Amino acid sequence: VDNLGQPLYCPYPLWISIPAMALSHLTIAGIAEGLFTLSLYLFILKTSPNIIYDCQQIKLNSIFSLLAFLIIISPLGLIAEGTAWGEWAPEEILNDTSSGVPLGFIPEKLLNGFNYEAFFPDYTMSGTTDILAYIASAIIGVALLIIIFKILGSIIYAKKQSL
User: Fold this and answer.
1) Which of 50, 56, 84, 152 has its CA 20 to 30 A from that of 121?
2) Which long-range contacts (CB under 8 A, 24 or more apart) does 71-77 make?
3) Lowest mean pLDDT, pick from 15-24, 61-70, 82-91, 122-131
């Protein structure tokens, strides 16, 4: 808080911010993530049980099919209205009326604070549609995760073989 009592980062006090984040994450997001994780586990158990029981050869076709499906549906995020909690643009905070009146200021650190250049800000790419940019971002993210897990798997496998 600055010397005028205005917040430097988030315009809401902790007694509003923490319950707002905790309630949505402990109820909706937590349950959804748990169900999603359980669904993926059951899917892998059904299509490639050897990966779970004894790390044998994996049937990747079904897993890649699932990944392709998830990549294709990633633009569904575009139909969501509003912005996620804490991902506000400075102008959105200035005009926020959730307390009944416009907030009327932008926290100082949001104007002059941390800033970085993302490769694909807001999952957009110049010269393409938002839908294609979402799909391309998903492809790049999945590819990077596959590479990272492949490298980590090779390291772990090599360590097991040397024991």
Assistant:
1) 152
2) 71/135, 71/138, 71/139, 71/142, 72/135, 74/134, 74/135, 74/137, 74/138, 75/130, 75/131, 75/134, 75/135, 77/123, 77/134
3) 82-91
Tell me how far apart the alpha carbons of residues 101 and 16 are, in angstroms, rounded to a whole number.
16
d(CA 3, CA 12): 17
Is the model's pLDDT at 54 over the cut of 70? no
CA distance 98 to 80: 19
Q: Which two tokens stand for residue 162?
A: 């040397």
Show the 3-state SS of 62-111.
HHHHHHHHHHHHHHHHHHCCCCCCCCCCHHHHHCCCCCCCCCCCCCHHHH
CB 136 within 8 A of CB 126: no
Residue 63 in tokens = 């897993």
Amino acid at position 147, single letter: I
Residue among 131, 89, 136 at smallest CA distance from 110: 89
Pick the more confident residue, 27 or 105.
27
Domain ranges of the chain: 14-115
Containing 26, the helix (H) or strand (E) segment is none
